[in-house]
Amino acid sequence: MQYIDDGMEIIMRENTKVVRIGAVNIGGGNPIAIQSMTNTDTRDIVSSVRQIHALERAGCDIVRMAIPDMEAADAIEEIKKRISIPLVADIHFDYRLAIAAIQNGADKIRINPGNIGSLEKVRAVVEKAKEYEIPMRVGVNSGSLEKVFLDKYKGVSAEGIVESALDKVRQIEDMGYDNLVISIKSSDVLMSVKAHEQIAQKITYPIHVGITESGTVFAGNIKSAIGLGLILNQGIGDTIRVSLTGEPVEEIKSAKLILKTLGLRKGGIEVVSCPTCGRTQIDLIKLAEQVEDMLEEMQDQISVQDIKVAVMGCVVNGPGEAREADIGIAGGRGEGILIKKGKIIKKVKEEELLDTLKEELLNWGRVDET
């Protein structure tokens, strides 16, 4: 039995059960895995693989794909041959699609037993997952909460979401299967936080965390950063997705930054930049965006990946403000400066700032940084 009846304390992620998804382990203190979901037509194998490769390059650990029909389920076999990260098949309503997805090589399936249908249909999926030894993600969203729990709690509530999820977990456990990942989501940030706090007192299964239907890149990032930050900072959560109405690669960028900000992921190149003010005499917004774009293109060329880069708009305060960064640039009045650990290293023309920074980063670790 992988749930707890007394509910006295939150089960921290290092104490959750380990579940293997392809070559990725989640739970048990393993690094928090970043997920995204393709928005291509799964039946379009070429486009789907192209998008998955872009997600892989961005740092996606696990990718999920919608399986709306049997043709999409059959496409999994060929897609799997062309990608390196684990593939999760997302199934709604038709249990036969879940079975076909498993047979075609999915590394995990995501179902909501509540919309799969009868116990016999759920059991058929469980038996196939057991045969192929792949995990199941059991998901409950606030938007799909059953009437019995809506009536009991007089509407959508954290308590109803948790009770529904636990009901599904026990149902599958009674079928003799416990290779599970749990997901409970709501577009209401504080409801999501409350629900995760409650379920983390009840189970030792790894938990997939996200704020569902969070919105566009702007709104979704804010809601996800707040919600995921509050949940993860309590030690809850083993794998995450930042759900955005936008390009899936943006989800990976956001997830990596959230984890890094919380100290849950090391490495990578972090860009910090100052807000503009009346002293700014260069187009700092454009410069910061150029630096971010340049670093994304260069990420495979830089030998050391744990670097903080500062982009400052004032040569007066820039060195001091950039002191905590490894390297930085600041500009004004047609010239700029290169900064390392808060010290000015050289002055260059403003138009040379970007190239100067690029050259320094390409040689990072191969020169004496003192």
Describe what is shown at a glance:
This protein is of the alpha/beta class and 370 residues long. The chain has helices at residues 45-58, 70-82, 95-103, 113-116, 119-132, 147-152, 158-173, 189-199, 217-232, 248-261, 284-298, 318-321, 353-362, and strands at residues 19-21, 24-26, 33-37, 62-66, 87-90, 108-111, 136-141, 180-185, 207-209, 239-241, 269-273, 307-312, 327-332, 335-340, 343-349.
Description:
An 8-stranded parallel beta barrel has the order 3-4-5-6-7-8-9-10, surrounded by 6 helices. Helix 3 (95-103) packs parallel to helix 5, helix 7 (158-173) packs across helix 8 and helix 9 packs parallel to helix 10 (248-261). By secondary structure, it is an alpha/beta fold. Helices cover 39% and strands 19% of the residues. The protein has helices spanning 45-58, 70-82, 95-103, 113-116, 119-132, 147-152, 158-173, 189-199, 217-232, 248-261, 284-298, 318-321, 353-362; strands spanning 19-21, 24-26, 33-37, 62-66, 87-90, 108-111, 136-141, 180-185, 207-209, 239-241, 269-273, 307-312, 327-332, 335-340, 343-349. It has 13 helices and 15 strands.
